[in-house]
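subagent[fold] <- orchestrator: predict structure for attached chain, return tokens only, no commentary.
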Amino acid sequence: MATTLELKTEHNPSWCQGCGNYGILNGLKAAISQAGFEPHLTVLVSGIGCSGKDPHFVKTYGFEGIHGRVLPVATAIRLANHRLKVIGCSGDGDAYGIGGNHLLHTMRRNVEITYLVHDNQIYGLTTGQTSPTSIKGFATKSTPFGAIEEPINPVSLAIAAGATFVARVFVGEFNHFKQVLAQALKHKGFALVDILQPCVTFNYLNTYQWFSQRVYKLDDEIGSEPPDRIKAFNRAQEWGERIPIGVFFQETKPTYEDQLPQLKEGPLAEQDISSVDIKKTLSEFI
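subagent[fold] -> orchestrator:
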């Protein structure tokens, strides 16, 4: 087990002052430490965007991939060595835009990955265009007259697609965020944590103050036991003057890895393949 300080690397973030990514980074290190994960058995996988540098700032193994491809890489790592704790880090464009198809199928397969989405409702790295979660009517440089598309609801999507752990948090509620993240990291199965993370440079609508006036904790209204899938889906539809945060849904069922006979003898990375003859297989393709 590593302390939060021991998880710090020699690299320092260069995000904008006040960016919600700082809170996410601190919360992630604290949650990894609290969960008791060993750094050499933990892997962070990221894509492209302001969140893409997360593996540089946490002293675990890391892989910085390409835009929208976090989950295929994370899945491959889990299948190669399912002793590893795999954590995906994406932005809302990375996860719900170009990576949306991968998200859908990883959720239904229930691969054991904790997926953290830095949801600032805008493309920040490319200087402020609308993202899949931007509110309809939101004016940006790519939509100067206001976005005409309805936004994606990641929580509803995840519940409907079969994710076994679905949560939303607000980085401005830091202690609550750490608590929920620790739960997600310990979950056996696919866990989506949609993190409301204000972009202080390009998103002048969904600010810290805007969220602070609207978010409320699910625990305060429904208790600590997440509801069934239908009730959770109905609760997830709430967005506007009141925005719920917390764990919407959680269930236990076999993971994708649990059902693969190839992994019954242990991680593929640890299996002896010195006696495997692939000549016959190769001959079919040559």
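orchestrator: received. Logging for downstream: The chain has eleven helices and eight strands. The chain has one domain: 5-283.
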